[in-house]
Amino acid sequence: MKSIFIAGISGSIGQQALEVLKKEWFKDNFKIVGGSVYKSWDKLKEAINKYSLKSVGIVESNENISKTFNGCRVFTGVDAVERSMEFCNPDYSLIATSGFSGVQNTLKAIDVSQRVCLANKESIVCGGNYVLDYAAKLKREIIPIDSEHSAIFQLLMGETSTPEKIILTASGGSLRDYPVEALENVSVDEVLNHPVWSMGKRITVDSASMVNKSLELFEAYYLFKIKNIDVAINRNSRIHSMVQFSDGVIKMHYGLADMKIPIAFSISYPERNFVFDKPDFFSENIHFEKVDFDRYPSLKLAYSILGDAPLQNAFNAADEIAVDSFLKGSIKFADIYRTIYKTVNEIQKQFLFSKSLKFHNIDDILKVDKISRNIAKKYIMEVIE
């Protein structure tokens, strides 16, 4: 029986991973030994009691938490996730933490686990080549969980030919049918009303702006070492991605829009042991639309910086700051793109040497992220004033 640690156990992906691990084959082959949360101590206590966890981490807490709870070692503070992961020394680590903080979670997972089931796209977006090079050096497996990258990963299984093109699919998000001129003043509730997927708040906002697809563009470039990447809108999210080969053949990954499917595959790979509902493909049309860059300017910007690790890092940092401000009602939806654009341009001025620069250490990754966040915060303060 293999041990597994879930970083971000209380979040959307973490909770769905727990559902997967309850299923017959999974509960017979895996034991959850640890997990982490950002600040939800109640949910963490619940997980400790339910799964008899060996070690847990909580990053931020207002409570006076002891070092043990019900026989479980408890780590607190900014490095709590990494320390609890190291304490557990799991066979597999599933990284479901959101945002830039996941970079260091992933690096620790590579240190201690043979397989990293990766749902934190920022690990590759912000670190560029660094995280994947580090995993290769230690001979660790990284299996992507994002539905698009899981799809591409599966489509390339058994292939010896490199595809000419990757085609990422997108739902178009909650605002896909709004007039472009109306996007400036949409409400938070409108943005969070996703037509297909059930996700966390940040990723739902990012879906509406296609920042999420921008991050997936960066991630696909590093994971599959291909720069020729298109994006197509598939409204019902039945086609999760495609690969096109030199003979014109296009392979498509078809399936229901449910994150438990790629989560399960990342754990059971190379086998398929997850039993789930089957789509009725006779009753659904497969239809694709081109992306309108006037509606999704963030994606256009993303293409212009593809392969430039510091600028991709800045892109993500600015979005994290801007989305948080939008969700708090401090800025407008359209200000998210403006914040990203401003930040990327400022970082480009400061790092003129950075074209296709490779990150060689975590300190440089952290430095660019910190500078980018300060630029984004300063710009947002100007917008608010």
TrEMBL record:
<keyword id="KW-0413">Isomerase</keyword>
<feature type="binding site">
    <location>
        <position position="12"/>
    </location>
    <ligand>
        <name>NADPH</name>
    </ligand>
</feature>
<feature type="binding site">
    <location>
        <position position="171"/>
    </location>
    <ligand>
        <name>1-deoxy-D-xylulose 5-phosphate</name>
    </ligand>
</feature>
<feature type="binding site">
    <location>
        <position position="11"/>
    </location>
    <ligand>
        <name>NADPH</name>
    </ligand>
</feature>
<feature type="binding site">
    <location>
        <position position="39"/>
    </location>
    <ligand>
        <name>NADPH</name>
    </ligand>
</feature>
<dbReference type="GO" id="GO:0070402">
    <property type="term" value="F:NADPH binding"/>
</dbReference>
<feature type="binding site">
    <location>
        <position position="122"/>
    </location>
    <ligand>
        <name>NADPH</name>
    </ligand>
</feature>
<feature type="binding site">
    <location>
        <position position="120"/>
    </location>
    <ligand>
        <name>NADPH</name>
    </ligand>
</feature>
<dbReference type="GO" id="GO:0030145">
    <property type="term" value="F:manganese ion binding"/>
</dbReference>
<keyword id="KW-0464">Manganese</keyword>
<feature type="binding site">
    <location>
        <position position="147"/>
    </location>
    <ligand>
        <name>1-deoxy-D-xylulose 5-phosphate</name>
    </ligand>
</feature>
<feature type="binding site">
    <location>
        <position position="194"/>
    </location>
    <ligand>
        <name>1-deoxy-D-xylulose 5-phosphate</name>
    </ligand>
</feature>
<feature type="binding site">
    <location>
        <position position="13"/>
    </location>
    <ligand>
        <name>NADPH</name>
    </ligand>
</feature>
<dbReference type="Pfam" id="PF08436">
    <property type="entry name" value="DXP_redisom_C"/>
</dbReference>
<dbReference type="Pfam" id="PF02670">
    <property type="entry name" value="DXP_reductoisom"/>
</dbReference>
<comment type="pathway">
    <text>Isoprenoid biosynthesis; isopentenyl diphosphate biosynthesis via DXP pathway; isopentenyl diphosphate from 1-deoxy-D-xylulose 5-phosphate: step 1/6.</text>
</comment>
<keyword id="KW-0560">Oxidoreductase</keyword>
<feature type="binding site">
    <location>
        <position position="207"/>
    </location>
    <ligand>
        <name>1-deoxy-D-xylulose 5-phosphate</name>
    </ligand>
</feature>
<feature type="binding site">
    <location>
        <position position="148"/>
    </location>
    <ligand>
        <name>1-deoxy-D-xylulose 5-phosphate</name>
    </ligand>
</feature>
<comment type="similarity">
    <text>Belongs to the DXR family.</text>
</comment>
<feature type="binding site">
    <location>
        <position position="216"/>
    </location>
    <ligand>
        <name>Mn(2+)</name>
    </ligand>
</feature>
<dbReference type="InterPro" id="IPR026877">
    <property type="entry name" value="DXPR_C"/>
</dbReference>
<dbReference type="InterPro" id="IPR003821">
    <property type="entry name" value="DXP_reductoisomerase"/>
</dbReference>
<keyword id="KW-0521">NADP</keyword>
<dbReference type="GO" id="GO:0051484">
    <property type="term" value="P:isopentenyl diphosphate biosynthetic process, methylerythritol 4-phosphate pathway involved in terpenoid biosynthetic process"/>
</dbReference>
<feature type="binding site">
    <location>
        <position position="148"/>
    </location>
    <ligand>
        <name>Mn(2+)</name>
    </ligand>
</feature>
<feature type="binding site">
    <location>
        <position position="212"/>
    </location>
    <ligand>
        <name>1-deoxy-D-xylulose 5-phosphate</name>
    </ligand>
</feature>
<feature type="domain" description="1-deoxy-D-xylulose 5-phosphate reductoisomerase C-terminal">
    <location>
        <begin position="142"/>
        <end position="224"/>
    </location>
</feature>
<keyword id="KW-0414">Isoprene biosynthesis</keyword>
<keyword id="KW-0479">Metal-binding</keyword>
<feature type="binding site">
    <location>
        <position position="121"/>
    </location>
    <ligand>
        <name>1-deoxy-D-xylulose 5-phosphate</name>
    </ligand>
</feature>
<protein>
    <recommendedName>
        <fullName>1-deoxy-D-xylulose 5-phosphate reductoisomerase</fullName>
        <ecNumber>1.1.1.267</ecNumber>
    </recommendedName>
</protein>
<feature type="domain" description="DXP reductoisomerase C-terminal">
    <location>
        <begin position="255"/>
        <end position="374"/>
    </location>
</feature>
<feature type="binding site">
    <location>
        <position position="146"/>
    </location>
    <ligand>
        <name>Mn(2+)</name>
    </ligand>
</feature>
<dbReference type="Pfam" id="PF13288">
    <property type="entry name" value="DXPR_C"/>
</dbReference>
<dbReference type="GO" id="GO:0016853">
    <property type="term" value="F:isomerase activity"/>
</dbReference>
<dbReference type="InterPro" id="IPR013512">
    <property type="entry name" value="DXP_reductoisomerase_N"/>
</dbReference>
<dbReference type="GO" id="GO:0030604">
    <property type="term" value="F:1-deoxy-D-xylulose-5-phosphate reductoisomerase activity"/>
</dbReference>
<feature type="binding site">
    <location>
        <position position="216"/>
    </location>
    <ligand>
        <name>1-deoxy-D-xylulose 5-phosphate</name>
    </ligand>
</feature>
<dbReference type="InterPro" id="IPR036169">
    <property type="entry name" value="DXPR_C_sf"/>
</dbReference>
<feature type="binding site">
    <location>
        <position position="200"/>
    </location>
    <ligand>
        <name>NADPH</name>
    </ligand>
</feature>
<keyword id="KW-0460">Magnesium</keyword>
